[in-house]
Structures are given as C-alpha cells and as structure tokens.
Amino acid sequence: MTRLFAAAALAAFAAAPALAQDSPKALQEAFAAAVEAEDAEALAALYMADAVSYGPDGTTSTGRAEIAASWAPFFDNFDGFSVEIVQTGERAVGKSHAAWGTWTMSATPVGGGEPTVWMGRFTDVSEKAADGWRYVVDHASMNAPPMDE
C-alpha cells in the first residue's frame, strides 16, 4: 500500500508544473506544461510578482493575479491544449535572459467541435530569482493571416 501511495504521489508531482525552474529553457517547458494542464495559477506562478504579460485575452496584465485572471477564461472555453514553443534566439542581458521564437497552440472548444490552432511569435525576458527562473515580461502575438495574391 505504501508503494502504491508513493507511486501516486510521484505521478501527481510529475504531472504538475514545477514552480522553481533551473534554466530559462525549463521555464519555457513549465509554461507549456501549465497551459496544457489548463492551470492559470500554476502559469502565473512562473512570473515575478510584478511581471507584465500580454495574455490571450488581448490585455496587458501586471502581477500574478492579473496574469492568472487573463488566462482563466481561455481555459474555461477550451480543452485539450497542446503547445509547441520553438525558440529561435536568445541573449543574456546582464542578469536577465531574453528569448524569442515561434509558438503553436491548439485546443478544442468546450462542448466539442473542431480544434482551433493558433500560431504566432514571442519575446520574453526572464530573471533568476532566489527560487529559480521566472518571467519578468512576455509578449506573444498572432501571425497575420495569409495575404491573397
């Protein structure tokens, strides 16, 4: 019975996004995991307390509570998220880290239907805090629709 409990606890821990990230890349992976888990609080915990984020609702959010609030309705309206982040560049800026690249995210509307796919680009800045890397600011934008020729 003890082994079963320990295995269940380990599985639950492994499935939850970790809060303390040991590298900027691990921070990106935790971000994707939080989105896929549809966990607005875990996602917001990946940011500094005074961070700025441009959320999926189109608003600029400052601080963890606002960041979580900007993602929660998105998670309420879609299920089965899948996220791919492709970093195409990075640079150390003092004690901070800047990264940029592209992302693809898909999810199915609550109640069913065809999956929706979003694609865009991102830029983020993170810093190493006492408890690991966290976002200071992020900005994601959607790709423009293809032009008719």
Q: How would you describe what is shown here?
A:
Strand 3 and strand 4 form a beta hairpin. Helices cover 31% and strands 44% of the residues. It has a 6-stranded mixed sheet with strand order 2-1-6-5-4-3, covered by helices on one side. It is α+β, with helices and mostly antiparallel strands and 149 residues long. The protein has 4 helices and 6 strands.
List keywords for this structure.
alpha+beta; 6-stranded mixed β-sheet; 31% helix; 149 residues
The coarse silhouette is globular
- What would you report as the Rg, rounded to the nearest angstrom? 16 Å
The residue fraction in helices comes out at: 25-40%
Report the sheet with the most strands, covering strand number, pairing sense and barrel closure: 6 strands, mixed
Q: Number of helical segments?
A: 4
* Share of residues in strands: 35-45%
The total beta strand count reads 6
Provide mean pLDDT, rounded: 87
H-E order: HHHEEHEEEE
Spatial order of the strands in the main sheet? 2-1-6-5-4-3
Low-confidence stretches: 1-18
Instruction: Specify the structural class.
Output: alpha+beta
Amino- and carboxy-terminal Cα gap: 66 Å
Task: State the gist of this model.
With 149 residues, this protein is of the alpha+beta class. The protein has 4 helices and 6 strands.
Please outline the helices and strands.
Elements: H1 2-15, H2 24-36, H3 40-44, E1 47-54, E2 60-62, H4 64-77, E3 78-93, E4 96-109, E5 116-129, E6 132-142
Parallel strand pairs: 1-6
Antiparallel strand pairs: 1-2, 3-4, 4-5, 5-6
